[in-house]
Amino acid sequence: MSRPLDIALIQTRTPATADAALAHVEPLIREAAAGGARFILTPEGTNLLEQRRDRRGLAITDEDQDVAVTGLRRLAAELGVWLLIGSAIVRSGHPADDRAANRSLLIDAHGTITGRYDKLHVFDVDLPNGETYRESASIRPGDAAGLTQTPWGLLGMTVCYDLRFPHLFRQLARAGACMISVPAAFTVPTGQAHWETLLRARAIETGCFVLAPAQGGPHEDGRRTWGRSTVVGPWGEVIAHVDHDAPCVLHAQLDMAAVEKARASIPQLLHDRDFAPPR
Question: Which residue among the candidates 160, 178, 205, 208 is catalytic per the annotation?
């Protein structure tokens, strides 16, 4: 019988600059590694959370110049752990589009980036409480799904709002993913109403482990995020969760055999059928 995979989700309250963000998250990652985690995941916006456009423009750099990204690569190599930077807000690299990328980065135990995924779905909404979000104004959406090999199986990569698009998760699972990451910075109203329900639904639909590290609490740019980082098993059971929005480390153990067990019990990934669209 294979050894369970020790993971840790890092819940953060990321500051508005990459230097401060690295100083904030590094001790939490060290704590996770000291506790035995071999795979550590951080939330969306790990390198900075800044929605004020004038300050945001000054804070964003290229991926290979970002202080938090380069610092976390060195840290993964030092600790000998795999690390998912849930996302970094960096320049997209597209000369015709000055919007940033919201980019998830998988780093191996040598500090090498082995997987990249740019968030596909951007969040534009006017909430009943008066909050307005226009992620499309500053984030260039990606155009490809993210599926990357790890020592424990294939990892499907998503970011935050992607959680509301089940077809993405299904395609990742049908392509072989056994784990799907959902780093997030959910708003409080949407998090309170939908966060756990959606995470459990995506796990049940795919037979995957769903790993959801989150931002939590009041941030420097005025937003407030829900927290409640969560690990869901492939049968839809909550394996571990945080019941608050403060920065912390959440440990969990994953029995990877549970994926095949869930999928054998309900082989839904084999039963898709083509059908005519509604009229």
Answer: 160
